[in-house]
Amino acid sequence: MRRPRGEPGSRAPRPTEGATCAGPGESCFPSDGPLMCALEQERRFRLPPKPPPPLPPILRGGQRLEAALSCPRFQRRPQQHLIRSLAEARPEELTPHVMVLLAQHLARHRLREPQLLEAIAHFLVVQEAQLNSKVVQKLVLPFGRLNYVPLEQQFMPCLERILAREAGVAPLATVNILMSLCQLRCLPFRALHFVFSPGFINHVSGTPHALIVRRYLSLLDTAVELELPGYRGARLPRRQQVPIFPQPLITDRARCKYSHKDIVAEGLRQLLGEEKYRQDLTVPPGYSTDFLLCVSSCGSVLPVRAQDPFLPYPPRSCPRATRDPAQRVVLMLRERWHFCRDGRVLLGSRALRERHLGLMGYQLLPLPFEELESQRGLPQLKSYLRQKLQALGLHWGPEGG
User: Fold this and answer.
1) Helix 96-108 and helix 114-126, axial crossing angle in degrees, nearest 10
2) If DSSP codes are grouped into helix, strand and coil, which group holds residue 19?
3) Mean pLDDT split into 10-residue runs, the chain, 401 residues
């Protein structure tokens, strides 16, 4: 039952601004009246004053860098001007932990900042005696990923000495360092001879990282085969080799909805027909291709299913007289995230794949993201693909096969 306004238990009216109520049934006193002023003075006298907030400590270069890189908001929105200025911190102010944070930050956000990368390289050289391979693998990660060879002249000799000293201590770290150097085309022969030795391979076979190490060793063996004709040391036995990249890279899987692959596939289907290209084919020794075409010696695009789409690997294993005269053309999507941020330099893993596919005999046709993004609709994309293929001297029958 609703109570009449003003009966006991009904809601009391709100106090007006500038007045204080002592409670129901009692009178209200102005907040600036003599009684309230006296009570406030008594309260301040009896209660100790609140201590002032502590002043933030003065952070020196390395501490400022660590604090900035550990902040989640900073990691989500990189501020290149800040980390560039912190690269000028004095070496004695920096620690391995701080420099590892910086290296991981650059690699994660694809920031190819020469000043910061040179600072990491200089730190590695200066602190060589105090660094173990588990720390070094993290420090060299951005150099391979960002496809950056430092100007520091002692960088490579320093890494070779560390590998010679630490190779048998941490096998996975050793192979990780060599993977970064592989992307930079700076593989030291002595370290390769060690990781391909039977003793090293037998040692890693019983570790939890055996599969990933074998995959990396397989890639290193491919680099030796294709890029180091003068190497005469040990090689990875054929029975130990595994596919290098058995599935698409993590970044491509995570960003597949932003990729141009589906619309390019539809353009090729309408232009050539489904029988004249293969999508997402992995070719020996384990490199994925976006789109592969088989082309006759006169430039005619052939049905892929009627041809062997793979070129022999290793290339020198097939005598020149028995080689298939048909060419294999690989259309390579160059998406925005395949490059270092704010630059035109391919990431190390992408550059390595394209380099090795070219050395194996595949003809590469890059499709840059700027050109793909400028096409408005499928008709324009088909015209763009037609021009790209015809520029290579390719021809085919009526559109759609």
Assistant:
1) 150
2) strand
3) 46 46 51 69 65 48 68 56 61 82 91 90 94 96 97 96 91 96 96 95 90 94 95 93 74 72 96 95 93 95 92 78 81 95 90 96 96 94 97 86 54
* DSSP letter assigned to residue 339: B
Q: What is the pTM of this model?
A: 0.79
Please give the pLDDT value at position 159: 97
Find all residues with CB under 8 Å of 45, minimum gap 6, and list them.
none
Which residues are within 8 A (CB) of 174 and not within 5 positions of it... i.e. 6 or more apart?
A: 133, 163, 166, 167, 191, 195
- How far apart are alpha carbons 145 and 130 in whole angstroms? 24
Alpha-carbon distance values, 342 to 31, 49, 81, 142 (Å): 60, 53, 14, 16
pLDDT at position 265: 96
Q: How far apart are CA 70 and CA 247, in angstroms?
A: 32
What length is written for the chain?
401
Structure tokens, 391: 């520029």
- Structure tokens given for 36: 């309230």
Distance, in Å, from the CA atom of 112 to the CA atom of 150, rounded to the nearest integer, reads: 11
Angstrom distances, CA of residue 148 to CA of 112, 151, 157, 181, 249: 8, 9, 16, 10, 21
